[in-house]
Amino acid sequence: MEEIRTRLAPSPTGLLHVGNARAGIFNFLFAKKSGGKFILRIEDTDIERSKPEYEEDAKAAMRWLGLNWDEFYRQSDRKEIYSHHIKKLLENGSAYVSDVIRFKNPGRIVKFYDIIRGNIETDTKDLGDFVIAKDEKTPLYHLAAVIDDFEMKISHIIRGEDHISNTPRQILIQEALRCPTPKYAHLPLILGSDRSKLSKRHGAEALSEYKKLGYLPEAMFNFLALLGWHPEDDREIFTKEELIEQFSLERVQKGGAIFDKRKLDWISREYIKKLDGKDFIEKLKPFIPEEWRNKNLSGAARLFQDRISKLSDFTTEAKFIFELGDYDPALLIWKNASREDTKKRLEKAFELIFSSGDVVAYAKKEGMGEVLWPLRVSLSGLKNSPGPIEIMEVLGKEESLKRIRHAISKL
RNA sequence: GGCCCCAUCGUCUAAUGGUGAGGACAGCGCUCUUUCAAGGCGUAAAUCCGGGUUCGAUUCCCGGUGGGGCCGCCA
């Protein structure tokens, strides 16, 4: 049986975006499911627009996601190969030179079978004699892609729906070159909230932005795999291995899918919650100021592990643990309580904490909100935060008393 | 405009001739509760329209409508 070989072929003219990443994931899953090979090919035939830093970004993004490629190619390294095929096309009359090199279009109806969509038929007549190379050494996209897919023995081309209309052209070239036609599967597009193809104007489209925001790669992988594909059961959380096992092109959706950040956040939270405590702290480190590391990081981490959607949230949400911000004294007052009562209660709480007494028992007697609200605010300086007892455990007695004293002085 | 693709809750989707059209996210409500979050329970919410085919259409066919993609010496 023929080996399954798939590829992701980004052009290094911009940061790798989520559409590329999702296509990469599907190619990867499909290949790995059948023990095949997944190939990364950089399509940099456009030397004007291609930049090495974008190639680096693509590789970094792929590594981050865990999309390990088995083989790597770069089109600019393969000039002789293309040149050989261009000559062949010129010799057998399939192409001709007229300033540039054009493909002699036979203008037939081209049919192909798409694994996701079924039969697709196009009349190539109106495509005309399209340009396939600038000169004998400089192939353009369609030609280079066809030659590479052939040379690299790509068995399945799994790519975005935006390539459907390119396929007939490429099949024509394959025929002229006497190359077999690979199997095709055109994926639905990833859409922005207005249902048009996801792009810069929809906000974050580069994969690196999600890394920067502190989404876990496993969560991103999981989320993207579910965009346009669905397993046989109703599960939503999968490891990479489980996805490899479950994946099939037959279960890929035909319609475009909107990239829903809220669902991403939910999946991300699920992954963060499952993290081992120590691991969570390690992952947090790149997102926090240096000074936080030696303070109450592990306690703060415990407090926020199930309260954040992405690692960068910790930086803003847990900030008060490390430095108490300024706040309005009025915030200390619970509902209809008076300033004086609030002050008295905080003083009492201070004494109890100082002497290791039971604040909760006092709160139960005096009124939970009456005691715990001002206490919590004096510790966090915030309208919303974790509970005061939890915060004190993290802050320690000394710092807690200091903050309560400060609150009292504000009243 | 030409060619092509697509169409189930707001969103991601399940169900490929027979279901009360299922799940998840988001929403809302209740619960918990000092606030927030998390958790538990519950609730609302969809087959684009019109014709066929059939005993029976979300499902098959045709036509509309709507949305999207591609129309470069970019990929």
From TrEMBL:
EC number: 6.1.1.17
Annotated ranges, domain Glutamyl/glutaminyl-tRNA synthetase class Ib catalytic: 3-99, 100-266
Subcellular location: Cytoplasm
A biological process term (GO) from this entry: glutamyl-tRNA aminoacylation
Residues annotated to bind ATP: 200
Group of enzyme by EC: ligase
Residues making up the signal peptide according to the UniProt record: none
Motif 'KMSKS' region: where in chain: 197-201
Gene3D superfamilies: 1.10.10.350, HUPs (3.40.50.620)
Known function: Catalyzes the attachment of glutamate to tRNA(Glu) in a two-step reaction: glutamate is first activated by ATP to form Glu-AMP and then transferred to the acceptor end of tRNA(Glu).
Protein name in the entry: Glutamate--tRNA ligase
Annotated organism of origin: Candidatus Giovannonibacteria bacterium RIFCSPHIGHO2_02_43_16
Record gene name: gltX
